[in-house]
Design a protein that fits this description.
It contains 11 helices and 21 strands. It has helices at 5-11, 27-33, 60-64, 78-84, 89-103, 119-132, 147-152, 157-182, 202-215, 279-298, 306-318, and strands at residues 16-21, 41-46, 51-55, 69-72, 109-116, 136-139, 185-186, 192-193, 218-219, 224-228, 250-255, 258-259, 268-274, 340-341, 348-351, 367-370, 373-376, 381-384, 387-391, 397-399, 408-409. Helix 5 crosses helix 6, helix 8 (157-182) packs across helix 9 (202-215) and helix 10 (279-298) packs antiparallel against helix 11. The N and C termini lie far apart (57 Å).
Length: 417
């Protein structure tokens, strides 16, 4: 949690952290500031002290909502600094950063670097800053184990409620898509039709998904997946907009909206077949649902997450499918990890990979996904079931947005001949 940051900085031997970029769509900055319409900001936090938020004057009111100490960039005469730097903008930026560091009480030490910004500009400025402040060591961390990933790993109840709210928006959207599809007219060749009688395409459905998410005040900053047939068999294929919507083909609908401004995410997948399913498709879906249920009944508090990836692989291999357990990078069968954490990032700690260490556990406060699947693109089918689950302080595993697991969706205006 956020209250762990100073201890994590101590553990990583960081004297300060430096965060660049916008306050929206920038998880480290959003985590510390709460977001808001603040662009091109800098945040410096000395270990054991509050963060200092450096912003432009035009955004001072938005920045003030963070509750942090605010210092305006106009405190530093950039034109004068640029003149002293002989019009070298990287050097002028470094000179301003030196003054900002000193105002934050930092003149030396190890400083962790985070945020989202244009890499070239930051690299050039920091290279010049090193010349001006040789006592400063800029430190880059492996993302998975960074102090932010570790702090964000466990959520307090206010964070969980925000994820729960976006989960409700998610399932509302899924329900609208389901209702829309099942009320479509169907052509003799089993192609769904729009109101004007023209064929319904995946692209048409994509447009409705984007609209219905936006109408509820959420965003899709990382995209989404609505794919049918062969594309459903390639896990991260978003879906070909030109594909026709047809009966009896598997549809993988993986949707992961976030709060407006790049806030907390929800992650959710259902697999559908409209009207009917082939016997092979039904059998594979049933296997995915069986292991999903087995996992749900076996999640244990504080257990290593990778244990459940191993359980999933062993189950699928017993059914004759390839998995990462004994096949290097399979492209058919079960081809990915079981799950991951969810928060201000769509993918964050804990991770379930076989090689993940014991620190990736189902600790109280983590919010994870469980998403087993099977993929056979050359057979024109794919399957995934996914829910987002909170490991409650009392150890209970709670799905944050319940929704049915129906595979075959009956069509309201069509009957199988």
């Amino acid at each position: 949690m956020k209250s762990d940051l100073d201890a994590l900085m101590q553990e990583k031997n960081l004297d300060a952290i430096l965060v660049f970029g916008h306050a929206e769509h920038n998880p480290p900055m959003r985590y510390l500031t709460g977001g808001g319409h603040v662009s091109h900001a800098t945040l410096i936090k000395k270990r054991g002290e509050g963060a200092v938020f450096f912003v432009g004057d035009m955004e001072r009111d938005e920045a003030a909502k963070s509750g942090l100490k605010i210092i305006s960039y106009s405190n530093y005469d950039y034109d004068e600094l640029l003149k002293k730097a002989n019009n070298d903008k990287a050097l002028a930026g470094a000179m301003r950063s030196e003054l900002m560091f000193k105002d934050a009480g930092i003149e030396s030490g190890r400083v962790g670097l985070y945020g989202t910004y244009e890499l070239g500009a930051i690299f050039g400025m920091l290279a010049r800053l090193k010349e001006l402040m040789p006592g400063i060591e800029i430190v880059g961390e492996v993302r998975e184990d960074s102090i932010f990933m570790q702090a964000m790993e466990t959520k307090d109840e206010s964070e969980v409620e925000r994820i729960r709210r976006i989960g409700k928006i998610t399932t509302n959207t899924v329900d609208r898509v389901r209702d829309f599809l099942t009320h479509c007219d169907v052509r003799d060749d089993e192609v769904l039709l729009k109101d004007d009688g023209s064929p319904l395409t995946v692209g048409d459905v994509h447009a409705k998904i984007r609209l219905w998410v936006a109408e509820q005040g959420a965003e899709l900053p990382s995209g989404f997946i609505f794919a049918i047939g062969r594309d459903a068999g390639v896990p991260h294929s978003a879906g070909n907009p030109g594909d026709l919507m047809k009966l009896g083909q598997t549809i993988v609908f993986d949707i992961y909206p976030a709060e407006s401004g790049g806030g907390y995410y929800y992650d959710f997948t259902r697999t559908w077949s409209l009207g009917y399913a082939t016997p092979e498709a039904q059998e594979l879906f049933d296997q995915v649902k069986e292991i999903y249920d087995e996992l749900s009944n076996n999640f244990d508090l504080n257990a290593p997450f990778r244990n459940y990836q191993k359980m999933t692989c062993e189950y699928f291999e017993s059914k004759g499918h390839k998995t990462p357990l004994n096949t290097k990078t399979p492209i058919e069968g079960y081809v990915h990890g079981l799950g991951h954490g969810v928060g201000l990032n769509i993918h964050e700690r804990p991770f379930s990979g076989i090689t993940s260490d014991d620190s990736h556990r189902l600790m109280p406060g983590v919010v994870i996904t469980s998403e087993p699947g099977l993929y056979y693109p050359e057979k024109g089918m794919g399957f995934r079931i996914e829910d987002t689950i909170w490991v409650r302080p009392d150890g209970r595993m709670e799905i944050l947005a319940e929704y049915p697991y129906d595979f075959v969706l009956p069509m309201k205006k069509w009957k199988k001949k």
